[in-house]
Design goal:
single chain, about 130 residues, alpha/beta, Immunoglobulin-like, 4-stranded mixed sheet, 3 helices
Length: about 130
């Protein structure tokens, strides 16, 4: 069974749609929220481990360039540039395909460590994810 996470991005999208079609979307959003709360109530361990953080690719840079997260966190990169970019680990442990405008790439950082990455198309674009326990 796959669990969905409610992120700030999904909330913004739902709010945007609600402004355009208030009655239809509000009813759909209410049903989605009730379903999500029911899932969390039945599976609290899944909710605790489903942390995700969104990072942006904007103006030929990763934002933020460096981030510290707890092990088990999923990072979701979104390309906001008009130019394709990639995300590839310096140690080659992970790599994305070319991301066009609006495309995303996600990776879970399950183990503690420092994960340096870069855009293989534009090697001056670099970033680091530090996964450590609090």
């Amino acid at each position: 069974m796959r669990y969905s996470t409610i992120t700030p991005r999904t909330v913004r999208r739902a709010a945007s749609l609600a402004r355009r079609r208030p009655v239809q979307i509000t009813a759909c959003l209410a049903v989605a929220v009730i379903a999500a709360l029911g899932t969390l109530a039945m599976h609290p361990a899944a909710a605790a481990s489903a942390a995700s953080i969104e990072l942006a690719i904007d103006k030929f840079a990763f934002a933020p360039k460096e981030i510290t997260v707890q092990p088990g966190t999923t990072i979701v990169w979104t390309n906001h540039d008009e130019t394709p970019h990639t995300i590839a680990a310096g140690d080659k442990s992970f790599a994305s395909k070319g991301l066009d405008t609006g495309d995303t790439f996600e990776r879970a950082f399950d183990k503690e460590g420092d994960y340096a990455y870069l855009c293989t198309v534009h090697p001056f674009m670099t970033g680091v994810v530090h996964a450590k326990k609090p």
